[in-house]
Amino acid sequence: MKNAYEDILLCLESVPEDDALLGELIGLVDKATLDADYVLSGRGLPAMPPAPAPKKSPLRSIWQSSVTGALFYIMLAVVVVGAMLYMDAEGSAGVPRDFAGFAVMTVLTRSMQSEIPQGSFIVIRNTEPNTLQVGDDITFLQNENTTFTHRIITIHESYLDTGKRGFQTKGVDNAAPDAEIVIADNVIGKVIFHSLPIGQFFGFIQSNLLLSAIIGVLVLGLFLALRMIFSPRREQQKPQKPKRKRKK
Predict the structure, then answer these.
(1) Predicted TM-score of the model (pTM)
(2) Nearest to 12 by CA among 23, 3, 1
């Protein structure tokens, strides 16, 4: 069978290849010869090359990536606004809401101005009173609806023989210590982070919710427009067909 294919191929190649139809016929016979070699050798037919992946429109790809980016920034904005609303919310008895042992607040007074300026964003960690030390900045309840953030200057290990700690506190910019001792039960937590720029940012958004939303939409729209204009269009390379040598 193999010799018959080779004889046919040799006969066809001896004819001048002026006719295009004759050239296609020679190509078909050439392929049939190769297929016969695979079948006779027990290897089966050669594997067909995989079909090329469908081409995606560059504009469609850019649009899809832009929509994904927009959704991400919208979700981020929702999280930020939610955090700000959560920050100002208070639980029972004026205590700031606790999340996984942490709470966030904004400093409203100037008693700690040189250390924690007025308007600063602070993060408070729920801390065991027995681990607090002199020099720690703590947030505590002054009464049912008022909280303060001051520095510990003295610790009474068993205040009024109650077996519980009491803390003498002072605003670092106040002339005198606080008049009342802070008992351990009124300690909300220890300040572990504070930032004035973050507090000012949150304060601006809270005071100008509508304006902030408009600015956010405009900035997001500008970002998406620039991305669609300047995003490089990737040209898909056409797969090259392997050249098959013709047997003679």
Answers:
(1) 0.57
(2) 23
